[in-house]
Amino acid sequence: GNRTFTMIKPDAVENGHIGAILDKISAAGFKIVAMKFTHLSKRDAEAFYAVHNERPFFGELVSFMTRGPIVAAVLEKDNAVEDFRALIGATNPADAAEGTIRKLYATSLGENAVHGSDSDENAVIESAFHFSGREIF
Ligand code: ATP
C-alpha cells in the first residue's frame, strides 16, 4: 500500500518537536495527504487503542494519549507502512536505531513520540477514525 497513518503524541507536542518531526517525515519522502492538530477524548483513546484493552499498560496509555494535543496525519509514499515504521524506530526508544524519530525525540517506552500504523488494513481504519473522506487528498 502507499499510505500510512501517524500521530505525533502528546509528549512530542509538549516538548516542541512537531516541526522537527514533520521535517524528518518530509525529508524521508512522505507526502502529507491529511493533517490535523487535535486532542483525543478518553473515549477516543479507548476506541483507537481497543486492541490493547486487556494489556496492563492500557490505563497508562489512555491517560498519556489524552494528556494534551496531538497531530494526526495520513502520509503517502511507496511501501508507506514499512518505510514509516523504519523511520520511527523500535517502540522502546532505548532499542531504536540511531537517527530514527523515536531515538531522537521519544522519552520512554510509554511516551514514545509517534505512532505508525502496523499494516495497510490498520492504516485505512486509523485514517478513517480521524478523518472524513473529504479531508484526505
Ligand atoms: P504505536 O502503535 O503507537 O505505533 P507500536 O506499534 O510500536 O506503537 P504497540 O505494541 O502497538 O507499539 O503499543 C502501542 C503503544 O502503547 C506504544 O507505542 C506505547 O506508547 C504504549 N506501550 C506499549 N507497551 C507499553 C508498555 N509496556 N508500557 C507502557 N506503554 C506501552
Automatic annotation (TrEMBL):
Single Gene Ontology BP annotation: UTP biosynthetic process
Domain Nucleoside diphosphate kinase-like, chain residue ranges per copy: 1-137
Subcellular localization(s) per the UniProt record: Cytoplasm
UniProt xrefs under InterPro entries: NDK-like_dom, NDK-like_dom_sf, Nucleoside_diP_kinase
Any one Gene Ontology cellular component term annotated for this protein: cytoplasm
Transmembrane is among the record's keywords: no
UniProt cross-references to Pfam families, sorted A to Z: NDK
Active site: 115 (pros-phosphohistidine intermediate)
EC number: 2.7.4.6
Cofactor(s), names only, from the UniProt record: Mg(2+)
Enzymatic reactions: a ribonucleoside 5'-diphosphate + ATP = a ribonucleoside 5'-triphosphate + ADP; a 2'-deoxyribonucleoside 5'-diphosphate + ATP = a 2'-deoxyribonucleoside 5'-triphosphate + ADP
SUPFAM superfamilies to which the protein is assigned, alphabetical: Nucleoside diphosphate kinase, NDK
Positions that bind ATP: 9, 57, 85, 91, 102, 112
Class of this enzyme: transferase
Matches recorded under CDD domains: NDPk_I
Alphabetically ordered keywords of this record: ATP-binding, Cytoplasm, Kinase, Magnesium, Metal-binding, Nucleotide metabolism, Nucleotide-binding, Phosphoprotein, Transferase
Function: Major role in the synthesis of nucleoside triphosphates other than ATP. The ATP gamma phosphate is transferred to the NDP beta phosphate via a ping-pong mechanism, using a phosphorylated active-site intermediate.
Subunit structure: Homotetramer.
Family annotation (NCBIfam families): PRK00668.1, PRK14545.1
Similarity section: Belongs to the NDK family.
HAMAP family noted in UniProt: NDP_kinase
Stated name of the protein: Nucleoside diphosphate kinase
